[in-house]
Every structure is written in structure tokens, then in C-alpha cells.
Amino acid sequence: MESGVVLDLVYQALRMVAVLAGPILMALLVVGLIIGILQAATSVNESTVAFIPKLIVFAGVVIVAGPVTLSLFTDYMRELFARIPGLVS
């Protein structure tokens, strides 16, 4: 297997990870930032306050974006498995 093919596969895998994890991580980042600002403004220094809103947002993003991300992932895996015969020969 050539190094260009391996690099292409690694690039596609990293891109897929970013596409799948991006919406969840960005939503949690925004919620964490908002809660951090509110905690700083109200002088509430409890670290467990941010857990429940982040959990709710995580579940919401997974429910809303889940079908799309699952479709993207299954398409990627089908393409990857279809390329296996060409990679080993």
C-alpha cells in the first residue's frame, strides 16, 4: 500500500471524526461558556451546576443530529469497506 493512500485514508477518517463530533462539541462549548459567564456574574462557584444543562444539550443534539450523523457514518463505512479489495491487492 502506498503512503499516499494511507494518508488519504487517515485524512478521511479524521475528517469524519470532526464532522461527527463537531456539532456535539460546539453545542457543549456554547452551553459551558454561557453557564461559566452566568456563574461568574452571580458568584456561584459550584462546579456541578453545569452538568445537567450540558447533559440535556448533549441528549438534544444527539436526538436532532443523530440520524444525519448515522447516515454519514454508514456511508463512510460502506465506502471504506468497498475500497478494501483495492487496498490489499
Automatic annotation (TrEMBL):
Main localization of the protein?
membrane
**What are the TM regions of this chain, as residue ranges?**
17-38, 50-73
Q: Which GO terms describe its cellular component?
A: plasma membrane
**Pfam families in the record, alphabetically?**
Bac_export_3
What GO biological process terms are annotated to this protein in UniProt? protein secretion
Query: Which compartment or compartments is the protein found in?
Result: Cell membrane
Keywords, in A-Z order: Cell membrane, Cell projection, Cilium, Flagellum, Membrane, Transmembrane, Transmembrane helix
Domain of life from the UniProt record: Bacteria
What's the protein's topology in the membrane? Multi-pass membrane protein
Do you know which InterPro entries this protein is assigned to? Bac_export_3 (IPR002191)
Extract the PANTHER family matched here.
FLAGELLAR BIOSYNTHETIC PROTEIN FLIQ
Q: Which family does it belong to?
A: Belongs to the FliQ/MopD/SpaQ family.
The identity of this protein, by name, is: Flagellar biosynthesis pathway, component FliQ
